[in-house]
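Task: complex structure prediction.
Instruction: return structure tokens for all chains below.
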Amino acid sequence: DAGVTQSPTHLIKTRGQQVTLRCSPKSGHDTVSWYQQALGQGPQFIFQYYEEEERQRGNFPDRFSGHQFPNYSSELNVNALLLGDSALYLCASSMTGAVNTEAFFGQGTRLTVV
Amino acid sequence: ILNVEQSPQSLHVQEGDSTNFTCSFPSSNFYALHWYRWETAKSPEALFVMTLNGDEKKKGRISATLNTKEGYSYLYIKGSQPEDSATYLCAFRGTSYGKLTFGQGTILTVHP
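Output:
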């Protein structure tokens, strides 16, 4: 089992550009959540996808959008990049409905906006 | 705004020392409390999911306790080893499937 995989691992973009990050969940998981981790802080929840729909959203602007595909993989899109979007983006997968459901994380994508 | 606080922010101990950290969280609308260990350049590794007041969980030299009525959890490491050096994160969950709200983490450094 490959666990949660994210791509790419590192990315450098220019202010104003758009970026797409990708996540493949752990086998058997149907729910994908995205988190942003800025330096010195804990991960902050962006949104969660289940059954190809956004089920829950954190306090992030509409520039942050996502998608979930029928195979449960997911994309995070950020438009009109700002310097402040530079962070580690983590994807977590879980199984809705499981008892004591655990969230498994990928290694993250390090985004640098210059 | 949900507040999850961890203390201390960082900790330096000698190999063989035992140590503990605290996670405090809202005592209302509680569903689960998660602990993760996060080593540099790796994925956060799940340690425990705790759901019941009074829960105690153990994995090798690491154990955790939970008090949902007063809103805190303790993580203990017995006989710390250099390989225990990592950031330890706790996360609060308010529903069965919902988002995790993380504390800022405790950075543990174990010196040989």
